[in-house]
Here is the input.
Amino acid sequence: MSAPVYVVLGAGPGLGLAVARRFAQEGYVAVLATRTKADAEPLAAALQEEGHAAQGVGVDLTDAADVSAVVTAVGERNGRIDVLHFNPSAWREKDPLHLTVPELLEDVALGAGALLPAVQAARPYLASGARVLVTGSAAADKPSPAAASLGVQKAAVRNLVSSLDATLAPDGIRAVAVQINGVLGRDGAFSPPPIADAMWAAVSRPDDAWTPHVPYDG
Here is the structure.
């Protein structure tokens, strides 16, 4: 059998890379998707230099057709997708009195809506035991009024995870949102490595212990 495959959409040099590294350490091929392939290749190279199998791809998460095409290509190239990790969010510094409806919808389309074409494209490559992982945030419950759209994105994607989990569960595929209840930092409990450990633990649970939402409180 080929090695399991982990795909992260919205990868970056912080949390996205750390979670990819955590899965790579467990023997997964790590596929890191960023806005452009040029941005993704150094992240993949960092893992390759550590002896891990890694690939870098570009994807426009605001374009559902591109999301579908890129995820499908990853599935075709590797023959499987075992963990699909949805990591993006849009930060817009606008309070509710200045945020427009088009801006809100644009942000929600990126931070929540893009999960739909990603999972739909991945579905043919998700076998029983596969997982959909979503990076959640305390903003879902305690939104900052200074960036009002972020809380809406995180509440929406958490809700969507519940629906995905219920829909996929009969086929042995589960979905989970790990809600990070703190501010990301370089050191300490809210730095990328311990959060990556928590995400690995969340997807490693057996079905009889499954919940679609896991809080990470440090």
User: Anything to note?
Assistant: The radius of gyration is 16 Å. The chain has one domain: 5-216.
